[in-house]
Amino acid sequence: CALQPTECFLSQSEDKPESTVKAKRRRKKKISDILEKSAPKPGVPADLQNLLSQHFSENRSVIELEELKLSDSCFLPANDLTHSFSSYLKEICPKWAKLRKNHKEKKSVVMLVICSSALRSLDLIKSMTAFKGDCRVLKLFAKHIKIKEQMNMLEKGVFHIGVGTPGRIKALVEQDGLCLNSTKYMILDWNWRDQKLRRMMDIPEV
């Protein structure tokens, strides 16, 4: 009995065939239901390794794919979701004060934090106050900031932490505005979800 109004509503739709409407309804349900019900869990090295393999499998040989694999020693312990951002950074980087003091190179950062949006970048910058001390943090996203401004800042000053989005960070690296030789830590904001409930790694462009 409860299904009858739904069927009646679908059959009255003049603009779209019933099958199209049902298909769209199914797709919407898949996004909201599956992503909403998937509980946050700590990322593991295999998560990133699998994504890299999937992304490059079509245009890389087996040997090239093997070279892309990172050893387990490249990975730090994932946040077990009990930490604040600052307390997590303190745990994985206990000698931050010394690293910060010794960093003198321009066009580079010691720590690179990658997340999916400018607003999220700002939130993370605020939440790392207890960790960063008096070091210099650079915003590496496109919103309201031109890439030339960021390149000039990197060229003229010494920055310790960069927080930004994949697209802008990639552009800075490609245009030789950001050098990664001095980067010792790369943090991926793995579990945060946007308004559509997507994690950074769920976004095709990323």
TrEMBL record:
This is CMS1 protein. Coiled coil: none annotated. GO terms for cellular component: 90S preribosome; nucleus. The gene is Cmss1. Pfam families: CMS1. Residues 14-42 are annotated as: Disordered. PANTHER family: PROTEIN CMSS1 (PTHR24030). InterPro entries: Cms1 (IPR032704), P-loop_NTPase (IPR027417). Signal peptide: none annotated.
